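Run Dihydropteroate synthase through structure prediction, thanks.
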Amino acid sequence: MTDLVRAQAPVVMGVLNVTPDSFSDGGRYADLDAAVAHGVRLHDEGAHLVDVGGESTRPGADRVDPRTEASRVLPVIRELAAAGVPVSIDTTRAPVAEAAVVAGAAVVNDVSGGLADPDMARVVRDAGCPWVLMHWRGHSRGMRELAGYTDVVTDVRAELARRVDDALAAGVAADRLVIDPGLGFAKTAAHNWELSARLPELLDLGLPLLFGASRKSYLGHLLATPDGTPRDTDGRAAATIATSVLAVAAGAWGVRVHDVRGTTDALAVWSATGRPRLATSGNDPAPTGRTEGGT
Ligand code: PMM
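Sure, done. The structure for Dihydropteroate synthase is below.
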C-alpha cells in the first residue's frame, strides 16, 4: 500500500457504512451480503479503496460499543479482501483497527487523527499501513460545541501538524501518513467553505490530503429551498462531485465519496482536460450566507 499513498492522485475512496444510523447511507448496508455487494460495486466503479465503517460519526451520534463495531465491520472486510477489493477501516479504536488489518484492511482511516485511542499509533506502526489522520476535536455527541476557531484554516493546520508530529514520534513512517481537514467535524458550514477555499495552506504541510465533503449537510444547506429546507442527502450528488473536482484541482490526493461512478467520471474529464490546477490565490471570498453546522 505504499504504492497507494504514493499513487498518482487522485485516489477515490468509496464510502461503505455498515451502520444503522449514518447520516447518509445508514441502514442501507447493515446486512452482510448487501454490504459486500455494495463494496464490490464501488470497486468496480473505480474506487481505489472501499472505506468500511461500523460507527456513525454524524453530529450528536451516540457511541457504539467496540464489540458491536467490530462485529459489523470484520465480516465485511474479510469478504471484500477475499474478493480482491482494497479496504480501509474507518475507526477511532485501536483494537478494531488491529482486527481489521488482520481481516485484510490495508489502510486505517482514523477520524480522530490518533487522539481517541492512544494505542492507535502502535497498531498503525506495527501494521506498516497508511494512516489517514483527520482533523478532530471530540466525539460526535459534543462536537458542535467545539467549533470555535480564531482562523479555521490556520488552527486546523496547526492541529493537524501536531497529529503528524505525534505519529512520527510514535515511530510511524512519514510516507504512511495522509491528512484530512475533517469537513463537518466540529466545523460550521462557513468553516467547511473556508477550508475548501484554502486547501493549499493545508497542502503546505507536505502530506497527501484526503477531502471528504460527500453529501455533508453544508451542501444540503447550500442547496436549500427558498424557505430554508435543506436538500436531501441523495440530492447532494452533483454538489459533492463539484467539491471533489475542485479539491483535486487544488492539489488534494484523494476524495472520500459515496457516489464513486459520478466522481470517477468527473475526474476522467478533469484528466482528459490536462489536469488543470487551480490558481492558489485570487479566489472570491467564500460564501457566508448559510452557516449551519454539522456534517
Ligand atoms: N467523514 C465521515 C466519516 N469518515 N473519514 C475521513 N477521513 N474524512 C471524512 O470527512 C469522513 C470520514 C462522515 O461521513 P459519512 O457518515 O458519510 O461516512
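The chain is about 40% helix and 10% strand.
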